[in-house]
Write a structure and sequence with these properties.
Oligomer: single chain
Radius of gyration: 36 Å
Number of helices: 6
Strand order of the largest sheet: 1-2-3-4
Structural class: alpha+beta
CATH topology of the largest domain: PH-domain like
CATH architecture of the largest domain: Roll
Length: 220
């Protein structure tokens, strides 16, 4: 609804995708409580003042419905996601904004919960990252402790994968560098043939030939 979850890059895997915690609607919940209180007062008052209270209740109800619809669209289009490569956040319907933090740039992850937030299991997550963006703060995040754990696990796995890729690239580079040298080295047959030519030409004696031949064969 209201667009895809998150546009993933080729080979990228989604780890977690979530909307803000339901506490995002706390103002609307408080507004509904106020409307109920106003309605009870209108019924209790009776007479002339009740007419004014009924109109106020009706107007307040229309405003409340419009705000609930607006906030629901905002909630539905606000997304927090963790993949195996980054942490991403998107929000807005008419005007979109977003942030994407590569896992290899994450330095630290903190979360904050007051007493009520602990009871409701939501909180504020702050990601400290290298670069110009600095700290990124995400509010109304459900189960922030679990979110922090997932991000740290992703950072560790990403670091391990990067080390393995670097080691593989280094091994390939070393193998490619050794290949020409191996191709340029003469074979045993070529070395023995060259040694025989030196003996036949008188450049070395038979004893020297025998010793060098044994050295060549002994290196196999």
């Amino acid at each position: 609804m209201f667009g895809p979850q998150l546009e993933l890059m080729p080979g990228e895997t989604m780890v977690l995708h979530a909307h803000p915690h339901w506490w995002y609607f706390w103002k609307e919940v408080a507004g509904s409580a106020g409307l109920i209180a106003l309605l009870v007062l209108a019924v209790w008052a009776g007479g002339g003042p009740a007419d004014v209270l009924w109109w106020l209740t009706l107007i307040g109800f229309v405003i409340w419905v419009l705000r609930v619809l607006f906030q629901f669209v905002q909630w539905q289009t606000t997304r927090f996601a963790i993949t195996d490569e980054r942490v991403a956040y998107q929000s807005g319907f008419f005007r979109r904004r977003g942030v994407s933090i590569p896992l290899d740039r994450v330095n630290n992850v903190n979360f904050e919960q007051n007493f009520i937030a602990r009871l409701l299991d939501n909180g504020i997550v702050t990601i400290e990252s290298a670069g110009e963006t600095g700290d990124s703060v995400f509010e109304n995040v459900g189960d922030p402790d679990h979110i922090r754990t997932l991000i740290f696990q992703g950072v560790k796995q990403n670091s391990t994968s990067q080390s393995e890729r670097d080691a593989s690239a280094l091994a390939r580079a070393m193998k490619a560098d050794q290949a020409p040298n191996a191709a340029a080295s003469p074979s045993v047959e070529e070395r023995l043939a060259k040694l025989a030519q030196l003996r036949d030409s008188g450049a070395i004696t038979d004893d020297e030939y025998a010793q060098k031949r044994n050295d060549i064969l002994g290196s196999l």
